[in-house]
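Appendix C reproduces, verbatim, an entry submitted by the partner laboratory led by Prof. M.T., so that reviewers can inspect both the input and the predicted structure.
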Amino acid sequence: MHARALFLLCALGAARAAPAQVGTTTAHTGVSFESYSFGSGLAFDRISELTIPVAVTQRFGGRVVVDLATAYASASVREPGGSSIDHSGFVDTDVRATVGVIPGRLILTLVGTIPTGASTVPDTTIPLFGATATDLLGFTTPNFGSGGGLTAGFASAFKLGANWAAGTGASYRYGASYTPVEGGTEMSPGGEVRLRFGVEGPFGGANKYFRGAFVYTTSGANELGGGGGGAQQSVVGDRLLAYAALSLPLGRSSFQLYGWDMRRLRARNFDAPGAVPMPSGNVLALGGRLNRPLSPTVALTPLLEFRHELTAATGKMELLGYLVRTGTDLRYRLNERVTAVVQAQLAFGTINGEGQSVSVVGPRVGAFLEWGR
């Protein structure tokens, strides 16, 4: 899970939408590559992924915003013997409509997930998809497809005193049935409910700002084999996510400290007949980034993040691993409409698996273009 996505509570964003943005179009694309090498002892010694994201946002008047987002991804796992497991293709496409029912106060959202990705894959690729889905490594593309679905929700924002604001939101997601593994059984995803609450505002003097959010997610069981007698269920525990960030002035620069913690509880019906429970777990991330303007058109943003993950199939949680990531983004405004971003990062740490601890190290590099009018 990416930290930058955690505090984007649409309720707070709706309350602060700038009039100058009404009627604008923005587009984002680029290429990102990340690769991690592992010490000996695991079932694989390298995981690599290349992602080409595409996102377009169009505003219609002052109340309606439509977004389209998709990506092309290519991933590979190399095994110690030299063989590899590969997958390439588009991921699912999200089309989102946001309507400001009461401008700055209440918005409604509707998201359609079009199954343009890999909804059915060979069983030989399962190790690849499991490796890229781990929150510890935080791949740009953690999953590659589903049967599609529909999400509906709302968000509201209101003032707290003179300068602070609070936001609340709720959404429900329906997932369409699909067969994830070739020759396997059909899976009917359980419905998902998500509740959000966040606050933000200045504190302690000029240019100091706080953002905080809490998200609660609960999901129904995923029915395997079409339901009915004898069918299995994939069950997931409730998820609790807390996020906080402080933005502080530092001379001509600004410095942000952030942290988030995601707890996945043990499924309520983990011991029910036919239940296949997802392990409980906890992911903690702490980091900081400095936004340093070098000129009116160039800014440098170095960052440092520590990430730590625990997991437990049963009983007490054990350390899955930790990761330290450092690097920088370089933003260059080419003209009034186009900004280029170059990203270079390095991550290193350890992962525990199969009774031993192994090292992990790898880069993440990217180049992106942001266009708006």
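DSSP finds two helices and 21 strands in the chain. Additional entries are available on request from the coordinating office.
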